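Example with several molecule types.
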Amino acid sequence: MPIFGTLGVSGSGLHLHRKWLDAVADNLANVNTVRPTSGEAFRQRMVVAQAENYGQAGGVRVAGAAFGNPEGRLAHEPHHPLADAEGYVRRPDIDMADQMTELMMAQRGYQANLAVVDRARDAYLQALTLGK
Amino acid sequence: MAISPLGMPFGVGAGFEVTPLTPAGQGVDAGGTGGADFAAALGDAVSGLEATQDRADAVAASAATGDLTDVADYMIAATEASLATELTVAVRNKAVEAFNDVMRMPL
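Resulting structure tokens for the full complex:
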């Protein structure tokens, strides 16, 4: 509904930040996913955001996902069942500090968009009481 | 006495451009075309009420059956539906008030 356009814009922002949270959760859940050297390591998932209706109604959408380093980190673990002949396995190239920072950013972004929805709703309700 | 314009804060610099969204000079017309635009906007809002309610009901149903992927989706649809209902009620109240004012006029 265009008369309450702010809610739609913030809704798209909430959707994006939730997808970002999902990506960070996926990366952190797979931080210890070991793969053999014959394949590629678990690749970190990053969400690509793109502005929608730029200059007009506004909003944001998930344009796609970018994936991290396929080579990962080679770790020498000869007793691991997936180790190759020299005893190496591939661990994901995910920096936990980086992911925790992204987690904070995604959470604060989500909260910021929630605040916009709240304030916009209050503003619209006050406008409806004009002239009482 | 010429007042120099304020500098951009925080060193934004000269690269900051202002792109007008509507061409200058069109602005808001008091009465006339302004009245038609407002009436059109109100009419849109009231006629969109049913569509908004339907969408909110559909999202609520999917939330109840567990199909909903985004909690915020439902809350925003519900907020829009309640705002649209409040708008319709306010329009009705104003219309009734105006009608009563006219009926009270002594003849």
